[in-house]
Amino acid sequence: MGKQSAWAVAIQKKRWLLMILALFSLSTAMVLFMRTAFDSCPTNTNSSSISKHFGEDKDTNTQIYASNPLDFMKSKLVLMVSHELSLSGGPLLLMELALLLRGVGSEVVWITNQKPAEPDDVVYSLEHKMLDRGVQVLSAKGQKAIDTALKADLVILNTAVAGKWLDVVLKEKVPHVLPKVLWWIHEMRGHYFKVEYVKHLPFVAGAMIDSHTTAEYWKNRTRERLGIKMPETYVVHLGNSKELMEVAEDSVAKRILREHVRESLGVRNEDLIFAIINSVSRGKGQDLFLRSFYESMQLIKDKKLQVPPIHAVIVGSDMNTQTKYEMELRNFVLEKKIQDHVHFVNKTLTVAPYLAFIDVLVQNSQARGECFGRITIEAMAFQLPVLGTAAGGTMEIVVNGTTGFLHPVGKEGVTPLANNIVKLATHVERRLTMGKKGYERVKERFLEHHMLHRIALVLKEVLQKAKTRSSS
After folding, report:
1. Do 99 and 227 fall within a single domain?
2. Are residues 357 and 226 in the same domain?
3. Which CATH number goes with the domain that contains 330?
4. Could you tell me which of 13, 7, 28 has the C-alpha nearest to residue 241?
5. What 3-state DSSP class applies to 81?
6. Domains of the chain: total
7. pTM for the whole thing?
């Protein structure tokens, strides 16, 4: 009887796991590599000359979200132009919006400006996810693309690089399309500020940017470096999908996912996991994180602190084509002899299982940081404290000392991050309290209906501008 009962429990557990994993459709996964009033935000959020801000709406009256804020987009023709189709944040966010618009009855057409020369599994998979939901996929060039742009009620360009498509494809038709263009910008790197990318930016209906920091950066850089003026700019903070929140708030689902992933990695339930969930690249700071992690292990050893075994997990690896940078990371782990405490996990769209199995998220993006960093709010939904760099959109999400700790970018941040790892490893109550505070912040500001409301306000204004210009 005991064996039969154990077998039944195992079967039930497996069923639960399969059901949970099945929840993670594309809408759940718009997180990896890839979205208030902020006490820790250093930018001038009150300056109307910078941007309109649709990110401060606390959920004080949920009745206003009873209907979908995007319902007014029914039957509207929307053309979306992405510079690429990949597992990076920009394309995935645009895809999410495409599917949300399809859900309210919009006619959505997708164009990818740059595709790999050879057949690509990721492109094939993502295109078919859109086709299955009724999104039309067109070639970037040709008369059909031009006709669609001219006919569309709204054209959304995704990322600065997508601007190259305008001249290459539309040519002399560009002035007819610009008045109905919403430019969704995510980049924070200086090399995107090229005239050939953004020369039409002042003439579009508006720009939508994910954080105040990025909006301020674009305003200053375009003026100082290129001598052009930004159009009306809307700051729109992102929100967590309903599917992700359902899992984040399901204690049984989280426990099963936690046990399953920990078992697969050989990590015990009582061990502490600090993880980065991002594409593996120098800009995401995995190298500095590993140095901080090693330093924290030395601090724990030298001070003889009583803590459970700690582990570092890097989700976002590419097992098939390991880059020179990733080999540097792995060599560092071997050199410091910490391979039993560091785990590399292949890149994936289904990040929720990894959020369920870790204890602390590390958001260690360098230089100007993340434009927003959606994985941060997703981790907070799972009641995880966040250790983040004091840069970019992270400062508009993490309340330092309340929902996590912030540390400087660069080498100067290695020791502070190590100290923060030790703080959370040695203080269970602080770790749990920060996680709960982060969850409360997500519920107030960073849910899907918050994001939809913000985006709806932008789309309404842009459509009105396009209508006014076309009739003048």
Report:
1. yes
2. no
3. 3.40.50.2000
4. 28
5. strand
6. 2
7. 0.85
Asked, for residue 182, whether it belongs to a domain, the answer is yes
What gap in Å lies between CA 360 and CA 23, rounded to an integer? 23
Q: Is residue 13 part of a domain?
A: no
Closest by CA to 405, choosing from 391, 383, 393, 389, is: 389
Residue of 376, 400, 456, 467 lying closest to 208 (CA atoms): 456
Which residue is listed with tokens 């050199």? Answer: 335
118: burial class by Cβ within 10 Å (0-12, 13-18, 19+)?
Answer: exposed
Q: 331-384 pLDDT, tens per residue? A: 999 999 999 999 999 987 788 999 999 999 999 999 999 989 999 999 999 999
**315 shares its domain with 170:** no
Contact in structure between 362 and 414 (CB atoms under 8 Å): no
Quick one: 327 exposed, middle or buried, by C-beta within 10 A (0-12, 13-18, 19+)? Answer: exposed
If asked whether residues 201 and 258 sit together in one domain, one would say: no
Give percent helix, percent strand, percent coil of the chain, each to the nearest 5. Answer: 50, 15, 35
176-192 tens-digit pLDDT: 999 999 999 987 776 66
Q: Are 384 and 253 in the same domain?
A: yes
Band of pLDDT at residue 318, cut at 50, 70 and 90: confident
Q: Which of 75-84, 234-243, 311-320, 353-362 has the weakest average pLDDT?
A: 311-320
Per the CB < 8 A criterion, the answer to whether 266 and 84 are in contact is no
How far is the C-alpha of 186 from the C-alpha of 158, rounded, in Å?
8
- What residue type is assigned to position 466 of the chain? A
Quote the Cα angle for 370-282-409, to 5°: 55
Exposed, middle or buried, 199 (CB in 10 Å: 0-12/13-18/19+)?
Answer: middle
Asked if residue 200 and residue 117 are part of one domain, the reply reads yes
User: Residue 63 has which token pair?
Assistant: 């009745």
What is the residue range of 61's domain?
52-239+449-471
**Is 102 a member of any domain?**
yes
Sign of the Cα pseudo-torsion (113, 119, 125, 130, in order): positive
What six digits make up the tokens of 160?
Answer: 């600065």
Q: DSSP characters for 249-265?
A: T-HHHHHHHHHHHHHHH
* Same-domain pairing of 278 and 407: yes
DSSP string for 298-347: HHHHHTT-----EEEEEEEE-SSS--HHHHHHHHHHHHTT-TTTEEEEE-
Residue 165 within any structural domain of the chain: yes
- 142 and 229 in a single domain? The answer is yes
